[in-house]
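Service request form, structural biology core

Requester: graduate student, group of Dr. S.
Request type: structure prediction, single chain
Budget code: on file
Notes: please return the result as structure tokens.

Sequence provided:
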Amino acid sequence: MAKVFFDDGSEEFHEIINSEHVFDESMFRSSRPITDDEIAVLKKNGCRCTDWGKVFVHKLDFNPELICSVEFSGTVVLGRLRKAFLRHHDLTLECGIYDSMLRNCVIGDHCAIRNVRYLENYKIGDSVMLFNINEMSCTHHSKFGCGVLKKGENENVRVNIAVCNENEQRSVLAFESMITADAFLWSKYRDDTKLMDCFKAMTEAEHDPAIPTYGIVGSNAVIKNTLLIKDAKIGDFAYIKGALKLKNITVLSNIDEVSQIGEGVEMVNGILGYGSKVFYQAVAVRFVIGRNCQLKYGARLINSVLGDNSTVSCCELLSNLIFPFHEQHHNSSFLIATTIMGQSNIAAGATIGSNHNSRSPDGEIIAGRGFWPGLCSDFKHSSRFASFCLISKGSYQNELNITYPFSLIRINNSTGELNITPAYWFLYNMFAIARNNSKFLKRDKRQKIVQHIETDPLAPDTIQEVLFSLDRIIELTARELHSPNLQAAKNFLHQNPDSSIVLEDPRTQRKSPGKILKAPLAYKEYRKITKFFAVRSLIRYYQNCGEKKFTAKVLDEMQKLPLYTEWLNVGGQIIPAKLIDKLFSDIKSGKIKRWNEVHAFYDECQKNYDNYKARYGIFLLETLYSKNIREFGTEIYNDVKIDVMTVCEEMFNTAFTSRKRDYDDFFRALPYRNNEEMTAVLGTVHENQFLTEYKNQMEEFKKTLCQFFPD
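Core staff response, request fulfilled:
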């Protein structure tokens, strides 16, 4: 029996026989049974119904003249309906229901439904436009792309997303609020079986397995010219046009972050994030797509999680976990079985994951932030890359383990050797690395931040790689000098920055060692950027405390903060490893039981991020000078100040010079008749907005630095 409530407080009961749809009482509060007169109008308009007793309409505002050639069956509840029009772009439709079939549906107020050949088991919001849809239905066992089960279902029907590895042993289960941080922790720590069980239970807790489902279309959504929509949950203001197949998916959308699905798209078993767009024959199967992403031009995304602010066109991505700000635009590129940690760009012809070194497809590639493989590059599983690696065009026939951040990796065409130039970006293309942070911040169009993203190239994750590289360069230099004394190697590196010494690192490549080029120069650059990061972190902490000068009092407070020296890139957010251990402990103990509590933990880490970095900054300075900071005297402070000041000047000058080369290069000017034409097309280096902003930032920082350290 369905209970109908009226505004005057009266109630009526209406029997609903064999309804396949689950209607809660709220759906009937403003409704009443359809009258005989209204039925007569509908019949005159060519409408049919298997049982008019199951049709309910709005009790005050219903115009039956606006329903024509409609077949009703099951229980149908119709909202307000009066003469009005809905318009979206060039499509204008009169409110009403025309030439359609409705079975077990709830229709919101003032909707325009026209030429929907089959609409079953859906709850439609207010002011929705449905136009030219072949089939739109929902089963009771739908999960809308989430990796959960209904009561009584077998485990083999669960939808897993096989990220990172094609053998499916790193699979994760999707849920609506999943971000790349969640997927990373779930896919990475597979040896902790109790933690894995907790993650699964937390995901199951997001849904009630006993409740049958009905499809949902949020208010103000527009769906037109689409063949098949099945088991879909579509958010407010979503815009879908010309899709081929949308099955078992959630489309998250709202007025501030409108999501769109366009022509020829097929999406099955997944979740599309707020403000994301999928267009032009793109295909996504078993997926989670983050906020403000684009998937277009025939791209195929399969068994993958794609982080916020990413754009993928034309290419193929299979079994990947991709952190935010990923760019891959070329039809001839593909990415298979990888964990790519964000701010990445995959060039045309790059076939990453094409070479397996085992008898089964179970290899992986892991790349830190800023991964940039060149044209037509291919790599062999399993390989690992530090942050901000630029890999030159080539076929890399052996597994790689590149631990040097900001490096250039290339194959020497004469010798076939692997050459690595550490700190390459700072030496030769400072413009690109300096612009990195500004570029990504401007591209971030998310209205709500759930996944915190570190976009600065100099952050704890990269600096800890720099520290490792410094130690490694010292160790390899000692070997090259045939000296067991590491201090002697340090002295050599300090005193001979322009030395042409070439180091061999057997850990960088299987079968033959990689050659480390310009190691003394890289050693010098690594130390400078470490000092810059440390001092910048200290200054920011002092500014947050309202202080302009380095004082012992604030230093005392800072040293009470916990010191974290190991950091993880967790989906784009940099978090101390010890805090992740604490998170795991709280999850396994039952203290944290829901994913929203995990996300609150991420928020708390972000809130304290500047404090953690400042404390780490002290540790870095103490490590570089092999002395407790309380033992620093004027000489060391002056040395730090001079070095950091030099870095500021070099960072701008090198950025300016590297960009200016583009304007001065003879071949760059070949397409242009004269300098005037070139200037009209490219502008001048002095007009570059980023360089102007960057110069102002560096000048401001230098002024702050001059006041900061004691004289």
